[in-house]
Every structure is written in C-alpha cells, then in structure tokens.
Write a structure and sequence with these properties.
17% of the residues lie in helices and 44% in strands. By secondary structure, it is α+β, with helices and mostly antiparallel strands. The chain has a 5-stranded antiparallel beta sheet with strand order 1-5-6-7-4. It has a 4-stranded antiparallel beta sheet with strand order 2-3-8-9, with no helix packed on it.
C-alpha cells in the first residue's frame, strides 16, 4: 500500500537546550500524522461507528533516531500500514528531510468499544472500518 505523506515544521517549543528536537516529541508527531492519515479516509482514533463508540488506544510505540532535526526544519512524514490484525493496526512512520531519514517509528493501536463510564473492551475491527483503512485515497 502506498504511504500517506504529510509535512511537519519543527517549532521552537519542539526543541531542547541543544537546539534539536526532543526525542519524546517524535511520538506526538507520529500521533498527529496517524490522525491526518485517518482523516483522509473519514476515520478517527475515536468515533461513533455503526452504532458503537470505537476507540484506538496505543498499545505499543517505538522510534529509532538516525539524525537530529532542528528548529524550522520541514520534515516529510510517511505513514503506511505495516499490519492489520483482527483487533489491532500497526503503522510504520518515517521522517525524512531532503530525502535523508531522520527517524523511523511504529505505533500499534487496538480497537476497543467504549462503553458506559468510559469502560473499554477490545473488539474486532469492523470490516467497513478496515476497508477504509486499506483504501487508496
């Protein structure tokens, strides 16, 4: 499946005392890119879907850093689906600047039904949701 692409400009508040992006901010960037990817397909990480409130909390997130990013850099961010399981989806996310890899991450989210008092129970990803995930926009 072709990757979804977006851009991220590094803000001053994203950087640390050394003037580079603080490592934890890449996790925020990955979440933002995932949400943009989902919006292009009419989806979200929390929404009412076929009479149920569904959510997709993260159950795993990793990021490997190759090169620093600095204030005002514009990063290209590619999001692709690495795996769709019965109840989970894993995204592979790559950050580049000028074609050079800055970082690579993975995020796995689990499909849950959100019930009364925000109780969550793992459920299978609905076929119609899965079809939109897999669609090429």
């Amino acid at each position: 499946m072709a990757a979804f692409r977006t851009k991220r400009r590094i803000e001053f508040g994203d950087t640390d005392m050394a003037g580079i992006v603080h490592f934890a901010n890449f996790f925020r960037f990955m979440e933002s890119a995932e949400c943009e990817f989902l919006r292009t397909r009419g989806l979200s990480v929390k929404l009412d879907w076929e009479g149920q409130t569904l959510g997709f909390p993260r159950v795993s997130a990793t990021c490997d850093y190759v090169s620093p990013a600095r204030f005002e850099d514009v990063l290209d961010v590619a999001v692709s689906i690495e795996r769709i399981g019965t109840k989970s989806v894993t995204y592979a996310i790559e950050f580049t600047r000028g074609g050079a890899v800055i970082a690579r991450g993975k995020v796995t989210s689990c499909c849950v039904k959100v019930g009364v008092n925000h109780q969550i129970d793992g459920v299978a990803i609905p076929a119609s949701y899965r079809a939109r995930l897999e669609s090429i926009v």
